[in-house]
Amino acid sequence: MTEEEEKGGESTLTVLLAGGVNLAIAILKLVAGIITGSGAMLSEAAHSVADTITEALLLTALKRSERPADRVHPFGYGKERYFWSLLAAVSIFASGAMFALYEGFTTVFGENSDQDNPLVGYIVLAVAFVLESRSWLQAIRQVRTEAKAESRSFFGYLRMIDDPAPKTVLFEDSAALVGLVLAFAGIGLHQLTGSSVWDGLASILIGLLLACVAYLLGRTNRGLLIGRQADPRLVRGVRDHLAAAPEIEALVDLQTMLMGTDQVLVCARVDFDDALGAADVERACVRIAAELAEGFHDVTEVFIEPVPRTDPNLRATVLARYGDLRANPVEDYQ
């Protein structure tokens, strides 16, 4: 099994586990919310429903992004993972945050309501916390394992990750655990004070929490959909490999873009030795592309364009994109 297949299987396991847990918890919270009349509990039920929808969207992302390239999409369907993950972030906001905020404001500014059977709420929240913790630990384990494999810190890997599935599950499960604590506090303070305002405030805080998670995930997937540069370490490795090629006198420009999880497009403009003939340049391009694909497993497409380093229009284009490149045309935009 390849490294990509292992990562894909781990992501699928993480998403399936989270989806099953969230569906079970959503049903428990809904029943408890109806029995207790707690707005915070109903907000948490909506939270779990949103998370369940999110897992379904992530599974769609994982499956559809694995389709091979075809005539219509010659670079493959890797970015479908980012599209469906972006919809998952929208789902968290639309079906989770908005309902929680509505329920919270309705409770705070409405008439004071009595609380029934708070013990049921406490039991359901405790069970939900245990189940959510299992899903959260699986997401933590996956991120830690992958971060260690790439010799990165936990948070450093999260910033550079190109697979939104484990990050989405980790964020939503973390929010779920915090939301459960907020709901527990809301129900407890309602029971102690007799005021449903505390229950409403808990719902509002849950809604704000979900809105923040939705924003963070949406921003991540937005950047990936637009076309983010590859990992700077990979860019530096590709740059060094190109600079070391005996046929290349200068690396004029290097562009990379994530085309999907573990899929990187490399476009290089290089100044070849003027003594080389056309056939020599062609053979060098084929060899260098093969070396890059073999040396960097994420590199799936390589385009090498021979250009003169002194061309003023090309230099102006590179300067406009990266700024002052007096030192190195690649290092300055890391």
Automatic annotation (TrEMBL):
InterPro entries: Cation_efflux (IPR002524), Cation_efflux_CTD_sf (IPR036837), Cation_efflux_TM (IPR058533), Cation_efflux_TMD_sf (IPR027469), SLC30A9 (IPR040177). Keywords: Membrane, Transmembrane, Transmembrane helix, Transport. One of its GO terms (cellular component) is membrane. SUPFAM superfamilies: Cation efflux protein cytoplasmic domain-like, Cation efflux protein transmembrane domain-like. Residues 16-225 form the Cation efflux protein transmembrane domain. GO terms for biological process: zinc ion transport. It is a multi-pass membrane protein. The keyword Transmembrane applies. It is found in: Membrane. One of its GO terms (molecular function) is monoatomic cation transmembrane transporter activity. The chain crosses the membrane at residues 12-35, 41-62, 82-99, 119-137, 169-189, 201-218. Pfam families: Cation_efflux. The keyword Calcium does not apply. PANTHER family: HUEL-CATION TRANSPORTER (PTHR13414), PROTON-COUPLED ZINC ANTIPORTER SLC30A9, MITOCHONDRIAL (PTHR13414:SF9). This is Cation diffusion facilitator family transporter. It comes from Amycolatopsis saalfeldensis.
